[in-house]
Amino acid sequence: MTQDGLTVGRLSAGYGDRPVLEGLDLSVAAGRVTAIVGANACGKSTLLRAMSRLLRPQGGHVLLDGKDIHRTAPRELARRLGLLPQSPIAPEGITVLDLVGRGRNPHLGLLSRWSRKDESAVAAAMDATGTLDLAERPVDELSGGQRQRVWIAMALAQETEILLLDEPTTFLDIRHQVEVLDLLIDLNQRRGTTVVMVLHDLNLASRYSDVLIAMAGGRLHAAGAPADVLTAAMVRHVFGIDSRIVTDPLSGRPMMLPIGRHRTEGHRPGATDTKDIET
């Protein structure tokens, strides 16, 4: 089936009388990995909540393959679109296996029984996230990093064609950050899963995304290939800090080096930054 992906048109959203997103337009192409970056409180999480129907827009629309997500049956939407929100809360006392298993709920009818396919999907998700040995442990007894990997396993077990992840590397050490991002790339390449993720680390966002989106003040500041979006001018506008953009020697993608007041040899604040240096 040909997919149009997620399309956001003239989207305005917020909380009560506090607007966060204002007239935002965005097209997420199917089968690509998109990373969203921006300063705190710029609207990244609000955008993901609106795109997943957790937050009803105050104006505009969110379309999935041309159909308004608010006119799509909840179970149908859950089969196609999965969300890992920021700071999810697990039911008290639930075990890891039970929580990951809830990712299969959209695929079960009222009279459907747990099948081998469901068991296989849960086992594969737990194996991929390194959580098999935690299966019988209560989620509320786990460390922050362990819990995050369990939530990612639940999202993977849902086996949706679109996966939205709000800061999936939160609480994870650098090894597990890289493992999770590698896993999402594997998922994209093997299944064609569309991945949209909010990341704080600009360099990981640049290395792992096909499309990089920078947000500022509830609007899109820039969107495109990482080589086009991750510039010193963007970092200055979006994050309010000077930087140098160099070439990542491993990926060939742009890499951002922040310029602070200390540990910065030979730099004058306000001096012209170079686009690239030899590595």
TrEMBL record:
Record key words, sorted: ATP-binding, Cell membrane, Ion transport, Iron, Iron transport, Membrane, Nucleotide-binding, Transport
Protein name: Iron-chelate-transporting ATPase
A cellular component annotation (GO) from this entry: plasma membrane
Location within or outside the cell: Cell membrane
Region (Disordered): 257-279
Annotated GO MF terms: ATP binding; ATP hydrolysis activity
CDD domains the UniProt entry points to: ABC_Iron-Siderophores_B12_Hemin
Record-linked Pfam families: ABC_tran (PF00005)
GO process terms (BP): iron ion transport
Feature: compositional bias, Basic and acidic residues: 262-279
Family per similarity comment: Belongs to the ABC transporter superfamily.
Membrane topology of the entry: Peripheral membrane protein
Domain ABC transporter: 6-242
Chief subcellular location: membrane
